[in-house]
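Module 6 notes. Inverse folding takes a fixed backbone as the condition and produces residue identities as the prediction. Think of it as a translation problem where the source language is geometry and the target language is the twenty amino acids. Below is one complete input and output pair. Work through it position by position during the lab.
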C-alpha cells in the first residue's frame, strides 16, 4: 500500500490566498504606524529647533537668517529633507511671499516659519495646497505643532 504524502494544489492555493489577505491587512497598518512614528519624531525635533531659534533670539536680539546660523549641518527630517525655516520678523515685505498661510491665506506665524515638508518632500505656502497637506508645521508663533491638515 503506497501512501502519498504532500499537498494538493487546492491546499497550496488556499494557503497563498490566506497569506495574501494577511499581507493586505498588515501592510497598511504597518505603513500607518511608521508614518505616525516619523510624525511624532518630527514634532519633537521641531520643538527642539524652535527652542534653539528662540535662544538665538534671546542672545542676539534678532532671529537667525537661516538654520545654518545655528546648526551645521542643518537637521533633516526622517524622510531626508532639511527642515525649512523662514525669518519673518524684521524681514522686508517683499521677502514674505513664502510665508506659510492658512485656508484664508493669512500667515500662520508673525515671528518665523519652521516646518518639515513631510513624506512627499513637496510644499507650497498655503497649507491647503495638495503638496502642503502632509507638511508638519509650527504655527501660532509656537502654540501649535502638527500636520498642516490639522491646522
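Target side of the pair, the amino acids:
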Amino acid at each position: 500500500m503506497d501512501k502519498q504524502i504532500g499537498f494538493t494544489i487546492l491546499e497550496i492555493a488556499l494557503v497563498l490566498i490566506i497569506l495574501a489577505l494577511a499581507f493586505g491587512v498588515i501592510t497598511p497598518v504597518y505603513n500607518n504606524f511608521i508614518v505616525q512614528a516619523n510624525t511624532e519624531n518630527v514634532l519633537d525635533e521641531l520643538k527642539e529647533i524652535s527652542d534653539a531659534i528662540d535662544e538665538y533670539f534671546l542672545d542676539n536680539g534678532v532671529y537667525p537668517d537661516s538654520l545654518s546660523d545655528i546648526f551645521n549641518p542643518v537637521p533633516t527630517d526622517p524622510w531626508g529633507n532639511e527642515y525649512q525655516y523662514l525669518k519673518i520678523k524684521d524681514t522686508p515685505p517683499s521677502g514674505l511671499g513664502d510665508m506659510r498661510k492658512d485656508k484664508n491665506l493669512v500667515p500662520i506665524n508673525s515671528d518665523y516659519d519652521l516646518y518639515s515638508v513631510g513624506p512627499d518632500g513637496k510644499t507650497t505656502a498655503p497649507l491647503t495646497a495638495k503638496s502642503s497637506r502632509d507638511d508638519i508645521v509650527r504655527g501660532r508663533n509656537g502654540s501649535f505643532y502638527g500636520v498642516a491638515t490639522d491646522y
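Reference fact for the lab report: The helical segments are 9-60.
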